[in-house]
Amino acid sequence: MISLQNIEKVYRTDTVETLALNKVSLEIAKGEFLSVMGPSGCGKSTLLNIIGLLDEPSKGEIRIGDQKTANLTDKQLAQFRNKKLGFIFQSYHLINDLQVLDNVELPLLYRSATAKERRELATEALAKVGLSNRVKHFPNQLSGGQKQRVAIARAIVGRPEIILADEPTGNLDSAMGNEIMDILVQLNQKDGTTIIMVTHDENMAHKTHRLVRLFDGSQVQ
Prior knowledge:
Number of helices: 7
Helix content: 25-40%
């Protein structure tokens, strides 16, 4: 499903050069649930952003399915992300002025779906995360765990093959974090969704199929 070959990422300023990723090679199978761990600043989020085509590597090759990504235009990258990838962030990134249902519909606005189709898909996604009774609420009326459920519903509304989750339980207490992990595990097991999750939590990481560890930009496990 995903192949990374000798990925390097260097950030440069006028005076400083920082090697964020150093020759990372990784093969992720279709339907795999992979967790990425390591200390702060080790390159976890950079790796996730590169897999998610939000950032370009300085060196190396990325392939997602049969698609090499290096030669895609910005428009093609955006279309590819919208169709193939779903993103879940630690800070939710919901729009406070929009109701829950409208937040979940957002990725579908960039597709040729009708208003009725968008509404049906968003309602179905919210049912999957147990929030059918919150569709007309606004984000500021929800708990942290409920906000993260909305974020998951938004990530899966377009039925992506791959979900990228950056610290999805990082802002939650252990009980709510376990509930969010249960939803991700169900998406992986029942829908066959490939999931790559960055986490600091060993307990959450051990619920996934495989653990990759980074240290100073290099893969150590």
